[in-house]
Amino acid sequence: MYLSSSSPTGIRFLASIKQGNGLKPSARAAGIHKEIGYRWLRESYLRFRSEGLGPAEATEALGFTTSRLPAWEAAVAVATGRHHLQANVQDETEFWAAFARGTRVDQAAEAAGVSRSTAYRWIRARFDELRGSKVILKRCQTLLRLTSHRCQGLERERLARLAKERNASAAAQHAAVLSANRYADAVLASTVSESQARRAERDTKYWQLMREGKSNAEACRLLGMHRRTGTSLRNAHNYRIPSLEPRPAPTGRYLDARERLQIADLLELGHSMRQVARELGRQPSTIKRELDRHRDADGRYLPRTADHDARLQRARPKVHKLVASPRLRGLVQRKLNRCWSPDEISGWMKKTYPEDQELRICPETIYRSLLLREGQGLHKRYAAKLRTGRRIRKTRWRTRTGRGSRIRNMVMIDQRPAEVETRLEAGHWEGDLVRHEALFYRAEVEDLRRCAVAAA
User: Are the beta carbons of 144 and 104 closer than 8 angstroms?
Assistant: First the structure.
């Protein structure tokens, strides 16, 4: 079966190449032979060159370099974009020139040296092009000198062909969605090479020596590797020895590696965020936040990198923001010295540095750093600069009389007298207070009116 580069398999393969994976791993994950991958890469390279990109730009857009690039570049000069059995461009130009002079289709075909079937195929292609450009049916009939019966027949064929293409596209999208699960499973269960297995075994021995109290230099000497390799390992794990406890099973609250692979795959296949969310059983906002957080500077979403970054972001405990950023801490201290409130500081940061996401702080973060005993980042002396002047946090329910109401000696509703239930006295009805207030204001208005009349 001939596989096209526009098929879901071809899209997955080219996307994997674009993400920086090698030819063999990408072909293995897509389930194709590497020569098919080379053919798709060659087609993509020639397409980039036909769009006006230079050799270096086309190679960068392809995301792949190989020793076959000179041969591909040599094919750019002779590539016409037409099938080898297709008629020459000069013949088609001569046909349309003869047809424009008013000759019949068969005479124009004879003048161009092509068959009648080829001429009628060109007529059909020109008809489809005009209808695709929103030209009305009557105008197409006039331009191509068609009979009404022939024009209606071409229109029916065009509509049937469009419907067939839509159905085929919908079927291909459905098959792509079904194969996305298999593709994610195949990528996650990809075989590990011998070098990767040796490297994993070496890393396990290194961390075991570190748990036994060995230094980095001693552990590297025992394993026969350079000290920089051990330093790189420690840096990758944030200078923490990995725990021996197995990783907890996913609860479903967070996206896992498999779902991230499906997101990247479905996006490459042309699905919208809502369609991706529907296929994964997630909310569209979850997919949008995932893409906003983990897309790189070029707008690419790399599922492996996104999963690694997400696990690092979920790690606890985190370094306090005011501790990790000296610049942010200095700006907050400067504004607190001027007796600014935390809300004013937060709003000023967002307005003054709209592009710098590092200079964002919530007012509650400042309050917690100043008023909580375990707060970090700001010295407690800055608490005196707050409007309240407090040094500890005081909840709104805690009063000098203890928890509860501020009204002293309040009579509860279950202790009211029995005559209230009879509703015989004024003031025991709902709305009495409103009615008394209305009467009072009416009397005031009457007094003012009488005073104004007497003064006149």
Answer: no
Distance (Å, whole) CA 151 – CA 140: 8
Q: For residues 268 and 11, is the Cβ–Cβ distance under 8 A?
A: yes
Residue (of 273, 256, 356) closest to 310 by Cα position: 256
Nearest residue to 97 (alpha-carbon basis) of 80, 117, 121, 122: 122
Of 120, 21, 251, nearest in space to 128 by CA: 120
Cβ-Cβ contacts under 8 Å for 345 (sequence gap 6 or more): 331, 332, 335, 336, 361, 363, 366
Euclidean distance between CA atoms 84 and 120, whole angstroms: 20
User: 220, 226 in Cβ contact below 8 A?
Assistant: yes
Calculate the alpha carbon distances from 329 to 33, 275, 356, 390 in Å.
56, 43, 15, 21
Q: Model confidence over 309-353: pLDDT tens digits?
A: 888 787 777 788 898 889 999 999 999 999 999 999 999 999 999
Residue 373, C-beta contacts closer than 8 angstroms, at least 6 positions apart: 392
Q: What is the DSSP letter of 249?
A: P
Q: Which of 321, 182, 205 is nearest to 261 (CA)?
A: 182
Query: Is 98 in contact with 112 (CB distance < 8 Å)?
Result: yes
DSSP 261: H
pLDDT digits (tens, 9 = 90+) for 52-108: 888 888 888 888 888 888 888 888 876 665 555 567 778 888 888 888 888 888 888
Which two three-digit tokens encode residue 161? 């062909």
How big, in percent rounded to 5, are the helix, strand and coil portions of the chain? 65, 0, 35
| Residue 31 Rama label (left phi>0; alpha psi -120 to 50; beta) | left
d(CA 326, CA 331): 9
CA 211 vs CA 205, 215, 236: distances in Å: 10, 10, 17
What sign does the dihedral 260-265-266-270 (CA atoms) show? positive
Give yes or no for a contact between 54 and 27, defined as CB atoms under 8 angstroms apart: no
Q: Give dist(CA 138, CA 149) in Å, integer.
A: 12
Closest by alpha carbon to 261, among 218, 223, 294, 230? 294
